[in-house]
Amino acid sequence: MIKLKKDDLEEYLNSKELDSKMEGRLRFTLIYKNLLYFSILIILFIMSLIFVRKVYLFSSIFTNINIIILIIYFTSFIISIILLGYLLMHIYQSWKTKVEWKKLSYSKNKRLDITIFIFSWISILLFIVTFIITPCTISGSSMEDTYQDGDKILCSHIYFDINNNDIIIFDASNYSYSQKPELYIKRAVAVEYDVLRFTNNSLYVNDILVCEELDNYQFLNIIGSEKKDDLYKEFIVPKDMIVAIGDNRINSYDSRSFGMINMDDLYGKVIFPVRGYN
């Protein structure tokens, strides 16, 4: 953000001289900067409303205070937008009256500047950690020995595709017994159009062994079938579907129990372990 020295501006406003350079800076400070912030916040707020499910999932990371996080998220946006809207309206009204509109506008901008700055950057920061990159903490043992309980990771929401062996985080509300919004972390062992094969109680993906000690019931769960005749047939993973299994094969609730997950339920992809990665 471009800042002017307050003394320079006030000295210019109190003088009778015209300075085109200072006049341009003043217009930027009073009008263009505030309009830019206002437009950005409106766009981010609308995106948050459209993808409110993602915001709710982000708040679910904070198990005991998720409602408080939701309130802070949307309140900071609303306060920032209202204050900026009020300031821009005041500047417009002052300009229409033509009575020392620059001094009045600058004075109002000076009083509201810090408050607007704080709330707008809280909003932008929360948007970034919700929609771009999110720090998460591993809970449980389903990804041992890759990740331990309490390990820190960074989850990216900006990815081009999901490939085999990527570690993903997804909304488990459609797959867990509780059906409440919560995030699971698993490994994508098969993605769309991969070929699954069940042989000798083992799962093969594109003829590569990915999971041993798999029973008939678990394989049928993965492919979404109840027919035992399907056990020994090759199965092609449908479009936009993922087979997700925890690295701790013995103790992981995953696609072997609830089947494939839909790409629409993806929350993000692990891009960087902050602490405790093996």
| Rg from Cα | 27 Å
* DSSP strand count: 11
Largest sheet descriptor: 7 strands, antiparallel
Average pLDDT over all residues: 85
Report strand %. Answer: 15-25%
Uncertain parts: 1-6
Q: Provide the helix percentage.
A: 40-55%
Brief overview:
45% of the residues lie in helices and 20% in strands. It is α+β, with helices and mostly antiparallel strands. The longest helix has 32 residues, at 66-97.
Describe it.
- This protein is of the alpha+beta class and 278 residues long.
- It has helices spanning 6-14, 20-50, 52-60, 66-97, 101-131, 216-223, 255-258; strands at 133-137, 152-156, 167-171, 183-190, 195-199, 202-205, 208-211, 235-236, 241-245, 261-262, 266-275.
- A hairpin with a 2-residue loop joins β6 and β7.
- The protein has 7 helices and 11 strands.
- The strands form 2 sheets. It has a 7-stranded antiparallel beta sheet. Strands 7-6-5-8 form a 4-stranded antiparallel beta sheet, covered by helices on one side.
- The radius of gyration is 27 Å and the shape is elongated.
- The chain is 45% helix and 20% strand.
